[in-house]
Design goal:
It contains 18 helices and 55 strands. By secondary structure, it is of the alpha+beta class. The mean pLDDT is 96. It binds zinc ion (ZN). The site of zinc ion has 5 residues, from loops.
Length: 1022
Amino acid sequence: MSRQPVLKNRRTLLERAEKFISDNYFTDCNLRGRLYGVSCPLESLASVLCSNRISFQEASKENFAPHNLGDTFGPTWWTCWFKVTLKIPESWRGKEVHLLWECDGEAMVWRDEQPVQGLTKDGEKTSYILSDCLKDEEPHSLTLYVEVACNGLFGAGQGSMIAAPDPNRRFSLQKAELVVFNRDVQELLTDFEMLIDIVKELGDGDQRGYQALFAANEMVNICDPSDPRSFSKAHDLAHKFFKQRNGESQHTAHAMGHCHIDTAWLWPYEETIRKCGRSWVAAIRLMEKNPEFVFTCSQAQQFQWVKSWYPGLYSQIQHHVKKGQFIPVGGSWVEMDGNLPSGESMVRQFLEGQRFFNREFGIICKEFWLPDTFGYSAQLPQILQGCGISNFLTQKLSWNLVNAFPHNTFFWEGLDGSEVLTHFPPGDSYGMNGKIEDLVKTVKNNKDKGRTNHSALLFGFGDGGGGPTQLMLDRLHRVQDTDGLPRVQASSPERFFSQLRAESALLCTWTGELFLELHQGTYTTQAQIKKGNRQCETLLHDAEIASSLALCRDGTFQYPVGKLRELWRLLLLNQFHDVIPGSCIGMVVEDALNYYEEIRRGAAALLQEAFGILGSKGNSAGVFNSLPWERLEVIQIHDGAALPALALVRVPSLGLSPVKDTQPVTPVSVTIQADGTVVMENGILQTVVNKDGTLASLCLISVNREAICDGSHGNQFVMFDDVPLYWDAWDTMDYHLQTRKPVMEVAQPVRVSSTSGLRGVVSFTLRISDKSTITQEIVMDATCPYLKFNTEVNWLESHKFLKVEFPVRVRSTSATYEIQFGHLQRPTHRNTSWDWAKYEVWGHKWADLSEHNFGVALLNDCKYGYSVHKSTMTLSLLRAPKAPDANADMGTHRFTYALMPHAGSFQEAAVIQSAYNLNFPLRPLLCNPDIVPRSAFSVSSPAVILETVKQAEDRKGALVVRLYESHGSSVSATVCTALPVKEAWLCDLLERHDGAQPVHIASEGISLNFKPFQIVTLLLIL
Ligand SMILES: [Zn+2]
């Protein structure tokens, strides 16, 4: 045999192989053109259109009308049900037979009243396998139903993915037929694709790439697409290449199937239920064919949905969970935002999630799974450890716009020193597809080369669902151990993390928050959602405390376990990482706001029931304090039919008191000066309000310190142009800071609205533009250490950002921000890129800027976005993005912030307590006028905050009390209670106390020691 020349032309060899499998070129003679054999039309196709998402049972009773391929249907969010009758030709015996279904709407195939396959063109699933190898005894005639949602994998954005949905989109079914599928051609195509990708990904300088090139080239030489007998030789050649093994030192990629399903985003919650059904049934089909296939699946809420909507599918899932193939992960109710939920909310995400997984599957997840969230609180490691979790997986920090995060595998140390083993898959994705590119990236991008030899590789279409495909599995299967590529091993989170932990000696530690340098607009976008979250967190806190106290007061009182769980779950659901950040479409906002209304109504009713018991069925005015310190505050009371009146009331910690008007030590004085400015004073603060509502001065009287910077004004509203690069609702870019414009136009200058002695109020109105206005009341209460700003904004702007500034007379290189169960510092300067990338940051109820012995705190009741640069403290108020919700934040907003100058440190000055007071109003109740003011709990140390009181899970007659150290100090504290506590136990955040010693209850109370920012949970047996 004479030698044929193979010239040194890498390009033509490579492109020749590519054309051999191209679906665009030469399909008349190449291998791709042979993928499908003969086809056969359906016997009949009929459809019916429904505006709602109805069940199969309902749909199957509808009247179906004949449907022609190419007919359009819609509009967006409707459902088109198809009835398909088909007959497989006898002559296809021994062939693999598919129903080919090409449609731009997401589809579910139903057979024998059960969902059997999800089909999604964007997710590369367009065929339902009717038979792997047709036998005579198999049914040849079938009736199937196909449920087609009028939305794509990513909703129905008008013009671009994240644009607001087109409400009138039309959909069509382009192809629906029976085909013979040539599996041997598919196998060979996959061989070619992998070899070609090896050539391309390993590049010109790699010898292994050339070996792949010549293997592929020789395969083209010997493979005749028209003669299947030539295929096996080509296939053998590919496998000879794939079987050439690595040495022992090679990196291992732990491949895990995954399907990231956003619980709501560019589609409403209801569609997510169907996305779960479609994606998970597809995963089950893959498990049946690929026994080694492992699928990781997060979010208890989605399991709960599938359980109630698809019980048949759910029992298959349970079966595969038992087999270890379908693996529930994450331990949380939803994949929540990592910044905005309160500490208690985060605990509840895991309490609800872990309890669900444990009840349904006997599993407590060991890893937290949050691949797609916009930053991670420094308090998470402690919360995770308290919820039985010691590992954490995400990849989102690879999105950082400014600084590359230095680790992929590391120990993450939280605020209190708790550590979790953390992994960012170096492929920088949670939706890889098993291609060579993913494997090369997994090694190349790994910033812990040499320290660890294991990485996770998550594959499967994500965000809109879809999940893994057979092709992805086939790709990975070929290169399990191929010289030049990392080893690939089907793995599970447990196997993966225990491997990492076993070889963790060289791993580095990252201390503090994992701040995402992107999406910083999500602290502010969709202000009503933020407000709903904060208010409902407060309401559920109060409802649980009031119900717990009612339970102790009256043994016949039924603690509303079921109702509270239902309301908590709604709140947790809205904390999903595209809902609370405000990065969702308008339909989702509507759903979310309705859920908040439901929580408000439900919690108010629970409070009233509990108050009925606590007030001993009296009918005089009383007040309930849900916070663990005594409060002396001005409140509004409704005295019979008369107008609301003000009273100064003193209420004990976690307790109640009848309203007995107390005279203030120093009344509030309000004086209008000759120049039109107004002076207000309450003995603690003195302020001068300019005619335009800005503060000329705010003085802390006891130390005679001015809080406002020389030559500046406090309470200065400012507007910015806010046009990001792409992610509209998500991003506010650094350059927006260059467009600062003060709001100067006064529509109504400052006037005095109230001077009662207990409360001084001035109000004014500013015009932002011809469409938008700000009306504000500046409120000074007797005995109150902060000045309140009750604000109403009519907001009809486009791509603008409204903030309020307080230039203060304080110099410090760092500012402090409240986070979950604690606080942290961030720089006020812009030295390095890590510093200036934090030009917009998040915090909860307060931020503080202090120098030695003096500082100023900025408090709020529903905001999360802050920035402190040099001496200017700024609170972010409203944004106006147009995608994915074209109407985001348009309308009227009401919110309150407050300014609190203080002597000493913020800890000594009780800034933390003041921010709680602002957020948890004293609640009016009706009580017996003879009641002696009473307190259920008090804590001896001001550093320790008693955050939560609730009935223990599954345990009547026991309460759970959660406390945390808030100052960042090691302290001892005594918890005093008036409740009849028989036993006390320390427990974890899941309320488990196995193995723990009981806590001693002395006559003065329960003594506890706290480390800085430590969370302590007590189980009290009554
Ligand atoms: Zn997501």
